[in-house]
Specification:
single chain; alpha/beta; Rossmann fold; 2 domains; 5-stranded antiparallel beta sheet
């Protein structure tokens, strides 16, 4: 079966490798190469992978450019896997291959359609699934080929969730690709009455409000860590990126929200609106060293667009 692949990140890489492993004829790969790579979390070098497997490759910035559509159409794919990128495909893409386009989403569809699913799963501590579906004109609403669930624990963050998602993708594709290769093509319609949807998140959404509970702040930090731009606070104009944290229970110490109460070998103990967190890892552009008595603040800004750029560069 002739297959085209479109994408940008780790899920694209793994899907491409699985297609090759299962003996599909991948006729072309379109890899996203944005001007600002910092804007794409977890971006992968798909060019190198395609070249290693002697597959034709072309870079793109805007997937709906007519020349890209013509390039893929000339490859005559029977099906296209469009996995791991955020641009919306025009209708012409959905109709280009006889079997259409296969999309991927890491939630238990129909729950959690939409943007930034990994961050939202972690914020809500909700279990996910590697879901492959036939793409339509709506967001993640097409009939499902295969789903493989994975668990999200209290301790999980973006970094620890990546291997769970990858394992679920591998299991899902190992189960479904042999059926697809044998000609079985029977996706199951989603129950649209059960659908929920997540909205866009950007770097500025990682700002910590220290008056919130320790549990909520900890979930924000876990949802915003690498490869995302981080949760953050500030002190005297310096942005502090917070990468790792843990909720501390039953401490017999109390202070002002956002204040560093203790510095230990394990990290910094910081007062929250309700409870405490242990900051296990943080960084700043100017290598600020936080000490007892420092108060982390909410950073006020005028232009959200400029602030997003500031976070990415810090």
């Amino acid at each position: 079966m002739r297959v085209g692949v479109i994408g940008a990140v780790g899920t694209t890489k793994l899907t491409l490798e699985k297609l090759v492993e299962h003996g599909f004829n991948v006729v072309g790969v379109l890899g996203h190469e944005p001007k600002n790579r910092l804007r794409v979390s977890g971006i992968q070098d798909l060019r190198r992978i395609a070249e290693n497997h002697h597959i034709e490759y072309r870079a793109y910035q805007r997937i709906n450019d007519e020349e890209l559509i013509d390039w893929m159409q000339a490859k005559e794919p029977e099906i296209i896997f469009a996995v791991g990128f955020s641009q919306l495909l025009k209708r012409v893409w959905l109709d280009l291959a006889p079997k259409g386009c296969v999309g991927f989403h890491p939630t238990q569809l129909p729950e959690g359609r939409g943007r930034a699913p990994i961050a939202w799963l972690l914020l809500e501590k909700r279990n996910g699934a590697a879901s492959f579906f036939r793409m339509g004109e709506g967001a993640d609403d097409g009939p499902i080929f295969v789903q493989e669930p994975f668990l999200v624990s209290d301790e999980d963050d973006t970094e620890s969730l990546v291997p769970k998602v990858q394992q679920a993708i591998s299991k899902a594709l190992d189960r479904w690709l042999p059926e697809l290769k044998a000609g079985h093509f029977e996706p199951i319609e989603q129950n649209h009455e059960l659908a929920t949807e997540y909205g866009k998140r950007d770097p500025a959404d990682g700002q910590i409000n220290w008056y919130e509970s320790a549990n909520k702040i900890d979930r924000l930090i876990k949802a915003s860590c690498r490869p995302h731009p981080s949760a953050f606070s500030s002190i005297e104009g310096n942005i502090i990126k917070i990468w790792k944290s843990k909720v501390l229970n039953s401490l017999k110490i109390k202070g002002v929200a956002g204040r560093v109460l203790q510095v230990t070998d394990l990290g910094l103990i910081v007062q929250c609106g309700d409870g405490h967190i242990l900051i296990e890892e943080y960084s700043s552009k100017d290598q600020v060293l936080l000490k007892v008595g420092d108060t982390l603040e909410n950073h006020l800004y005028q232009s959200r667009k400029e602030f997003n750029q500031l976070i990415l560069k810090s």
